Amino acid sequence: MADSQQSQRPDNSKIVKRLLLTVAGMFAFGFALVPLYDVFCEVTGFNGRTKNEAVAATHQTVDKSRTVNVQFITRNAKGIPWKFEPSVKQVRVHPGEVRVVNFLAGNPTSGDMVAQAIPSVAPAEASLYLNKVECFCFNQQPLKAGDNTEMPMQFYLDPEIPDHITTLTLSYTLYDMTADATAETLAQLQTTE
């Protein structure tokens, strides 16, 4: 009878090994999720992420039969006291038309700082059709204590933007990057008069 009970019991060492492999696999998958999510968002425009690279200002056919209202919102992340705002709150744009909007930044502190703006678009689907030719958000922005600057953003909307998108909101959040600034950016602070 003791023999039949032992043959019915599962081998605990095999179960423990399977459970440990499952836990290790889940742990590895958890680390892989962040880069996979970033790639997914970049490819699909999900979560309103925009491409963080310049596109060529190719000659686009301008669709003058319709306009899209593009709104601009700015905010500062915690810990950055800069003044940061768009020169205009919104513009009406024909799809395919290249436009420039300036953003104003000021460093009211007594120390030199470096900041970077991170964009997002709502509705998220619209991010697939927003093309930035030039944007201050591509690079870290150094600003000496007490200085102000004007930062341009040149963009156009792809003429293929769906008709149901009549308004899109481009939002920038400004982050303090002083501690993580590149050597090149810090050198710009030293050379600016």
Catalogue the unreliable spans: none
Helix/sheet category = alpha+beta
Listing every helix as H and every strand as E from the N terminus to the C terminus, the arrangement reads HHEEEEEEEEEH
What is the beta-strand fraction?
25-35%
Shape label: flat
DSSP summary, beta strand count: 9
For the biggest sheet, the summary is: 5 strands, mixed
Strand order of the largest sheet: 3-1-9-5-7
First CA to last CA: what distance?
92 Å
- Please estimate the helix content: 25-40%
* Overall average pLDDT: 84
Q: What oligomerization state is this entry in?
A: single chain
Radius of gyration: 25 Å
Write the layout of secondary structure elements.
Layout: H1 2-8, H2 12-44, E1 68-76, E2 83-86, E3 90-93, E4 99-106, E5 113-122, E6 130-135, E7 141-143, E8 148-157, E9 167-176, H3 183-191
Parallel strand pairs: 1-9
Antiparallel strand pairs: 1-3, 2-4, 4-8, 5-7, 5-9, 6-8
Structure overview:
The structure is a single chain. The chain is of the alpha+beta class. It contains three helices and nine strands, in the order ααβββββββββα. It has helices at 2-8, 12-44, 183-191, and strands spanning 68-76, 83-86, 90-93, 99-106, 113-122, 130-135, 141-143, 148-157, 167-176. The longest helix is centred in the N-terminal third of the chain and has 33 residues, at 12-44. The mean pLDDT is 84.
